[in-house]
Amino acid sequence: MEIEKILKQMTLEDKIALCSGASFWETKNYEKYGIPSMFLCDGPHGLRKQEREDGADMLGVGGSRPSTCFPAEVTTAGSWDIELLKEIGAAIGEEAKEQGVGLVLGPGANIKRNPLCGRNFEYFSEDPYLAGKLAAGFIRGAEGQGVGTSLKHFAANSQEKCRFHSDSVMDGRTLRELYLPAFEIAVKEGKPSSVMCAYPKLNGIHCSDHQELLTGILRDEWGFDGMVVTDWGAMNDRIEGFRAGCDLNMPGGSDYMEKAVRQAVRDGTLPESCIDASARRVLKLVFRAAETLREKSECDYDAHHALACRAAEQGAVLLKNDEKILPLKQGAKIAVIGEMAKNMRFQGAGSSHINPIRISQPLDFLPGVSYASGCDDRGNTTDALLAEAAEAAKNAEIAVVFAGLPDRYESEGFDRESMQMPEGHIRMIETAADANPNTVVVLLCGCVVECPWADQVKAILYMGLPGQAGGEAIANLLYGKANPCGKTGESWPIAYGDVPSSEIYGKTKDALYQEGIYVGYRYYDKAGAAVRWPFGYGLSYTSFAYSDLEICGNTVSVTVKNTGKYFGAEIIQLYLAPPQEGLHRPVREMKGFRKVFLQPGESRRAAFELDDRAFALWKDGWKVSEGSYTIHVGGLSAVIEKKGEEIPAPAWQEGSWYETCQGKPSKKQWEAMLGRAYVPPKLRKGQFTMDNTVEEMKEFSFIMKIMYKAVEKTVARGFGGKADYENPEFRMMMASSAGAPLRSMQISGGMKGGVMTGLLEMANGHFLRGIGKILYEK
User: Fold this and answer.
1) pLDDT in tens, 272-325
2) In Å, what is the CA distance from 127 to each residue of 80, 132, 222, 588, 693?
3) How many C-beta atoms surround the C-beta of residue 561 within 10 A?
4) What is the pLDDT of residue 63?
5) Diameter over CA atoms, the chain
6) The pLDDT of residue 725
7) Are 575 and 535 in contact (CB under 8 A)?
8) At what angle do helices 383-394 and 423-435 cross, to 10 degrees?
C-alpha cells in the first residue's frame, strides 16, 4: 500500500510533525514524500472557510468565504428528519468540494444537559437516540460526496464555562446511557472520517489523553477506523495523546511538545508504533481528500438556498395555535412588530458563524403589512417604541410579534446567565397582546427560554435559528404555503428552577453531573414535573390518528392516518417504559421514530425493530432486566415480555433522589452513586501548571495580572479599543485566550519556544528561570 511505503521512508521527526497542523486550518504537505496538505473547515450548518491565514480564528470573528447558511442544529433537530439531514450534509459536502475543503468540522452530537449552555444551538437534542440518528444522517450525506466529517465534541462537553480545562465528573452509567450513545450511533451508522476530541477532562483525564475513550471505546468497542483530531487548542500532553490515539493536533505552528515526543520514543517510554498509527490515519484522510478534490467541482448555491428554506420549514415547531389563528388568511390586515422581523436572528455566534451567500428577512416576504420595531437590536425598548407597537397591533386584525434572543445572549465561549428573554421583548409581546387578543409570536432563539407570556397570545411558532432562508420560510409557514410539522428536540421548562441541574450547573469550575441519567424528559417524567412544552411536542395545521398497534416478537407496527385537510408530516415516536423494580430507571425512553408525509385521508403503516440494546441498561456492561415493558406510540400502548436477568438496586439507592427525582440530588447521594468522594480542584500559588489560565492565576500572580491586562487590551483593539463584556464576540475571545490554559494559548497562537513555559515559571515565583526560558528555549 502507498501509505505504508511512505511511512517507511519518513523520519521519526517528520512523522511526529505530520501529526500537527501546518497552519490554523491546514495539515502539512511534504513534497519529498508526495504528501499533500488538507484544508479543514468549520462547520456543522455551513462552511466557514477562512482563506487568509492572518485573519484565521476558531471563533467566527474573522471574515470567511461566502457559503450557504443552513439552519442551525437546534432547528434541523425539530425536523426529526434523517433524510433531510443527509441532504444538508450532501449540500455542505458539495460546497466543500467547490471550495477545496477536505474535512468539515461537524456535526455536533453533545447532549443538551441544561438550557443555559451557550452552545446548545449547535447541538441536536437532550435525547441521545435522536441526536445520534440525525448526526448519522448528516455524516452520510457529506461523506457520500467524498468529503470528510468530524463528529464533535467527544465527549461530555455540555457547558462552556471553563470548557478548556474543566473536568466532566460523572458515573459510568450516566456516561454510557446518556452522553456516549449519540456518538456511538453516529459512528456506527454514519461512519465519519474523523472524530474531534473535546476540551474538558472526563473523570480526571483530558479527552485528548484518554486512552479508554479514544481507543478502548471509540475504536475497539465501536469499530471506528478514522482519525481523531483535537478541538482547536485541546491537546494536553502530546505524548499521552499519541498513546491514547489522538492523531492530529490543531491548529499548527507551535510544534507543541514535539521534542518531548521524539525523546520519549528514543528512550523507549513511547512506542514508535503509536506515532505510526496516528500518522497512518492522518495520511489515509489526507490522500482521500486529495482524490476527492483532484478535479474542479461546482455546486448550485440557488438549490442550496431552496434546501435551506425547506429545512427551516421542516424544523419549525408550532407550539400553540388557539382557535386555529394560523395559517393567516390572504388579505387579512396584519401588523408585524419586532426588530427581528427586519434583522432576523438566523445563526449562532462562534466557530459555526457563517458568511451567508444571501439572507432573506421576514419583513421582505410579508408584503402589505404594517410595521413597528417595538424594540432595538439589543432587545431593549422604550415607552415610545411600545406605544408605536400598541398602536400598530390595535389597528390590525392580527399582530405578529418577532422576539427571542439577540446575539449577545448566547454564544460559544460562555453560558447564559438565565433562561429569561430580554425584558424589552417580553414587554413588547405583552403590549401587543394587551392591544390585540389575536397576537402571534414568532420565536427566534437557539435554545429554550422562559415564556411567562405564553397564555396571553394565541399562537407561537418556534423557528430556532433558521438560517439564511429563514425569512421566506417564516412567511410560508404563517400563510400556510408550508405546514409546520416539527417537534421539540428538548423539553421546555416553565422556569429555570425546574431544571434538575439548575443548582449546580455553571456554579463550579468542574462540571458535576449530579443528576445522572435524569436529564430532560427522563427527569420531568419521573419527577411528575409540569413543563411548558414536553420533548417531542409540536402542532400542525392538519391532524393525525393512530390505530392498530401490534407487537410481533421484537417488531412493533402501527398505522397513522392524516385526518385533517392539509398535506403534512407526522413524526411517529416510540417510547419504551421499562420495569421499575431493581436498579433505578427512567419512566420511559425513546427507542424509535419515523417521519411520514401524508395527504389528507392517507394512511401508512410503520414498523420498528427493537433489538436487545433497546431494553438494556448499563451495569458493568449492557444488561437486559427481565420483566414487562410497555410500548407507547401515539397514545396507544402494548406490553412486551422480555427475558433477561435480575438487576438489583445497589445499597445506596434506597430512599435516594434517584428513586423519585423529587427535589434536587444531594452531593452525598451523588458521591454514593459515583463510588468516590469528589474533591474540587484548588489553585495554589507557586504550583501553577500549563493547565492553568491567565484569568485564574492573575488573582495570585502580578505577572499574570499584567498578562491579563495585555490580553484584554489586545482583544479590545478589534472592538474600537473598548473592553466590551456585553459583546458576545469580545466575551468569547477573552474566554478563549485569558480563559484558556497556557498550553491552549501556545497551541492556538502558534507560539514556538519557551514563552508560555517561561511565563509559567515567573508566575510560580521563578523570575530568572522564566526569563531564561523565554530567551533561550527553542
Assistant:
1) 999 999 999 999 999 999 999 999 999 999 999 999 999 999 999 999 999 999
2) 12, 9, 20, 12, 33
3) 17
4) 79
5) 82
6) 87
7) no
8) 30
What pLDDT is attached to residue 728? 82
Contact 77, 488 (CB under 8 A): no
Q: Which residues neighbour 572 within 8 Å (Cβ) at sequence distance 6 or greater?
A: 546, 558, 560, 593, 594, 595, 596, 606, 633, 634
| Nearest partner of 118 among 505, 471, 478, judged by Cα | 505
Residue 728 is inside which H or E element, if any?
helix 728-735
Q: Which pLDDT value is given to residue 64?
A: 87
Q: Report the distance separating Cα 487 and Cα 172, nearest Å.
A: 30
Query: For 127-160, what is the HEC assignment?
Result: CHHHHHHHHHHHHHHHHCCCCEEEEEEECCCCCC
**CB contact at 8 A, 226 and 244:** no
Mapping DSSP to helix (H, G, I), strand (E, B) and coil, where does residue 628 land? strand
Residues annotated catalytic, as ranges: 231
Those residues of the chain that have pLDDT short of 50 are none
What residue has cell string 405583552?
430
Which is it for the CA torsion 608, 78, 118, 493, positive or negative? negative
What is the rounded distance in angstroms from the CA atom of residue 394 to the CA atom of residue 203?
57
Judge residue 97's burial from the number of C-beta atoms within 10 Å of its C-beta, 0-12 exposed, 13-18 middle, 19 or more buried.
buried
Q: What is the pLDDT of residue 413?
A: 84
Cell of 459: 399562537
If one counts every other C-beta atom within 10 angstroms of the C-beta of residue 648, the result is: 12
H helices of 47-116, where? 73-79, 82-99
Please give the single-letter amino acid code of residue 386: L
Q: Could you tell me which residues come within 8 angstroms of residue 105 by beta carbon, excluding any fewer than 6 positions away? A: 40, 41, 42, 43, 44, 150, 152, 196, 351
